[in-house]
């Protein structure tokens, strides 16, 4: 455990939006986790325990209200970008991939090979796919905007149903 992890508090809440029920968590540095719909609290708890050993999980609905507000505005079609800080922790390669995802404009998609080229690893599509799959902050770090080179819908930690709804929302439909 590093000194920065001793006594660290990870605040969390449960978000209910339409048919989705999901958990979100934040550190003092920003949103660190947005979970998949209908997954149990234990999934988020295990994620925090694995990446922030020694951190204390504390429910804080009021403290996470600004994050919930931005997500809700996005799902309502009233927000295209997120302003709240993100504390997505990962390897240098994962960070590079996640930064590339943040550069995909609202309503557009990119292929895994395009993301690989953006991070200067044009032959590392599988590694890019793994980094995208490890994205801890669904929606805000828009991994749903990555599709197969042929245009086919590909895997998504939140499930293909959620991915489809997010892409439809961004193309003018509703989530």
TrEMBL record:
The keyword DNA damage applies. InterPro entries: MethylDNA_cys_MeTrfase_AS, MethylDNA_cys_MeTrfase_DNA-bd, MethylDNA_cys_MeTrfase_DNAb, MGMT_N_sf, WH-like_DNA-bd_sf. Residues 92-171 form the Methylated-DNA-[protein]-cysteine S-methyltransferase DNA binding domain. Its EC number is 2.1.1.63. SUPFAM superfamilies: Methylated DNA-protein cysteine methyltransferase domain, Methylated DNA-protein cysteine methyltransferase, C-terminal domain. The keyword Glycoprotein does not apply. One of its GO terms (molecular function) is methylated-DNA-[protein]-cysteine S-methyltransferase activity. Gene3D superfamilies: Methylated DNA-protein cysteine methyltransferase domain, Winged helix-like DNA-binding domain superfamily/Winged helix DNA-binding domain. This is methylated-DNA--[protein]-cysteine S-methyltransferase. The lineage of its organism: Bacteria, Bacillati, Bacillota, Bacilli, Bacillales.
